[in-house]
TrEMBL record:
Adenylyl transferase: region residues: 424-903
Function: Involved in the regulation of glutamine synthetase GlnA, a key enzyme in the process to assimilate ammonia. When cellular nitrogen levels are high, the C-terminal adenylyl transferase (AT) inactivates GlnA by covalent transfer of an adenylyl group from ATP to specific tyrosine residue of GlnA, thus reducing its activity. Conversely, when nitrogen levels are low, the N-terminal adenylyl removase (AR) activates GlnA by removing the adenylyl group by phosphorolysis, increasing its activity.
Single annotated GO MF: [glutamate-ammonia-ligase] adenylyltransferase activity
Sorted UniProt keywords: ATP-binding, Ligase, Magnesium, Multifunctional enzyme, Nucleotide-binding, Nucleotidyltransferase, Transferase
One GO CC term on file: cytosol
Cofactor(s) recorded in Swiss-Prot or TrEMBL: Mg(2+)
Every PII-uridylyltransferase/Glutamine-synthetase adenylyltransferase domain range: 282-420, 785-871
Family: Belongs to the GlnE family.
Annotated segments matching region Adenylyl removase: 1-424
Protein known as: Bifunctional glutamine synthetase adenylyltransferase/adenylyl-removing enzyme
Biological-process GO terms, alphabetical: regulation of glutamine family amino acid metabolic process
InterPro entries, alphabetized: GlnE (IPR023057), GlnE_rpt_dom (IPR005190), NT_sf (IPR043519), PII_UdlTrfase/GS_AdlTrfase (IPR013546)
Amino acid sequence: MELFTIAEAWSPWFRQHLAQLSDAERAALQTSCADARDAAQWLAVAEAKVADLPGPESRPLPELARGVDARWQARLRQWRCVEQLRLIARDMSPTVSMPETTAELSHFADAAIAVALKQAHAEAALLHGRPMGQDSGKAQQLVVIGMGKLGGGELNLSSDIDLIFSYEEDGETDGRRSISNQEFFIKVGQRLIALLDAVTADGFVFRVDMRLRPWGDGSALAASFDALEGYYERHGREWERYAFIKARVCAGDKAAGERLMKSLKPFVYRRYIDFGAFESLREMKAMIAREVRRLDREDNIKLGAGGIREIEFIAQAFQLIRGGVDTALQARELLVILPLLAERELLPQAAVDELISAYYFLRDVEHRIQALHDQQTQMLPTDTDDRQRVAAAMGFADWAGFSDVLRGHRHAVNEHFQDVIVARDSDAADTPAVEAWPASVQALIDSRAAQQLGGTGGARLQRLLPLLVAHCQAHEHPELALARVLPLIEATLRRSAYLMLLIENPPALARVVDLCAASPWIAEALARHPVLLDELLNAATLFAPPSAEVLAADLRAQLARIPEDDLERQMDVLRIFQKGQVLRVAASDLKGTLPLMKISDALTWIAEVVLAEVLNVCWRQLVAKHGRPRHVDGSACEPGFIIVGYGKLGGIELGYGSDLDLVFIHNGDPAGETDGAKPLDTASFYARLGQKIIHLMTTAMATGQLYEVDMRLRPSGASGLLVTSLDGFAKYQAESAWTWEHQALVRARVVAGDAALAADFARAREALLCRPRDAKALRTEVVEMRDKMREHLAPKDPAEVDLKHSLGGLVDIEFLVQYLALAHAPKHPEICQWPDNMRLLETFMHTDLLPAGTAQALMNAYIALRARGHRQALANAGRTMDYTTLLKEREAVQQTWQQVMHQ
């Protein structure tokens, strides 16, 4: 019984789609799949519903034979024939998507490579024994790395497969005819290729291309891990980085292969925004354009203008530049990457939608034209009948209608391709002439660091400096701008990719000059951490800090891409995130796009989001080692721990460079212990949790530290426990705390941790604040504490004023608010809702505890003083100012102080 008879009897659906194949295709499949019983066996696994057809890994594979077996090889090719027939039919079904088809094709290729590798290895081992590692003494296996469409899981119906062969250790085989491991695996690789690639009476399985291996054709077919790593470290070229974006271990020793891929990742993805890749990408793009023009590939839907390759280039260019920092961009599948480009605001959503739509259409066309004659081609057919078949298979009535839609897709793709990595007409066109360098620039050029630059770095510096000088000369204060930017340029000399960022992005260079000229604080931050330059690329996001919810989601997503055991990388991500977000706030502050209260809100949100994720990281690590602590009722703590923010953090009033006043509280069973393999008592577990949090926050790294942390407000101060129970905290506050500790409690709130425990803390705080107090005694203690602080911290020179500590400064307002809160909370418990001065002053006004005019004057003074503080912080000007500055506001504060505190 012939194959087509079987297929037609098997399913009316299949018969319908077989009718769309060409006569030549039917004949080829008929010849290749001559063994009707085998065909019946393979086809019978599926039902009429195409969506229910299983993947190739669940269908019968050819059985392994010992030695050379022509029938085994024939069965392998017949297997491929039936798979091809099945997948062509699947591809034509409207219920099966293109990504499903390409994924199945790739799974089938993996299965074919695996079965051929097993056969090839067995044949070589019969002659030479097992290849053994010289260091480990363990048997070695070949690692097969799939490149290109195979690596990306995106094979088409007639793709060849690009492979690289490697093995973990050098050594020798243990047989009587012993050979080196390299010789052994070269033999295995040669046999594997023959089993798949050789054309027999039954056809072939896959064409195999090995040209992507180190040194290409003529080099050894297989190399050890060490040899591969050495090659890419010393000789790897940009196009090889580009190719390795899609590399995947598809067969062989997959565990060893993953170790190899991890070791090669730094070659592919730099741990910073890799603007140094621009030049090579520009050259690749120009080569693509030249090739299209030279070879007249208008009818080639892959290589022609607006074809598949241009879509791939757009996605992979962003991957190469940004994948080291944004690890989500390290995905291999193009249809995973394209949506991320819109999500990350690297391309407009409309552009990404057009590219995705075009990619689906072009890949469907590719499959239709390859299914015509089982040929590896991307050329549109010229034969009239073939054209009609393709048009019909794509859902069009005729070729003209199909061509119009195809032309529209290709035009859109080519326009986006032209917009990515824009070509330069000439260096002279965008490099202004400089008659004589300013002295500071010449000093940089003559510096040892600049003189030691290699050819690439030196060339980039020569290109950047004229652009930089031109931008500075156009600034209102050119000498100041240049003086503040040059330290940043000097700091980036050894990482010249940052120089390329500024060369390639004139708007970003202009923003660097403007922001550095406006704020030495920003200039110094950029010079210490050039990685922050990436924030300057997009003006729309730079001057619009995100909400707390968006911040939290962004940071969670970034940390989720890092292995949980890679603490150093997690710490780097946290630091870069925090500094980048603070830079955005500072830029918005200088630009005037956010009012003062929103500036403080944004800075506080950043700290809260960071604290929440630091707690999560530390909690997961400790639980993995020691298990979870328990509550008194025996339930597991999740986490049974809160971080309480005091001071500016608690009051939602953080400034630039503020430290964080924190208190740690838990509600675990004090007599219990954790439930892990290495249990700890509850107190020790939470103490370690607190220590780890402080360590993650304060450790100095190349990316700096997160925040300075002050724990002195915990019960009993520096001599007290690092983490206390809620009961212990409440008992201390009720029985032992000083008045100034109750003042501090006014501005306390939970900023991260267990929601149920946070609610319990809020109730305990309200009970403590609402305790009746003697107003006169309270007033005396507050005034005495304020006098002591002023004595020690305010300037002695009456002409010099400290924003915080001088008469009428911020601390006077804060102490006034704290006194009023403690004195009146028992009768006005609504006071306990708020930890921030502005809303507390509004509450005092609405409850008639302060006259409206007085409360408003205090609010105005508070805003003015804090705004001045932010400006001086960005100017690195400290907290002091001239006596006449904000004199009216400070006098209003002093007047209220006298009225309220000296009754």
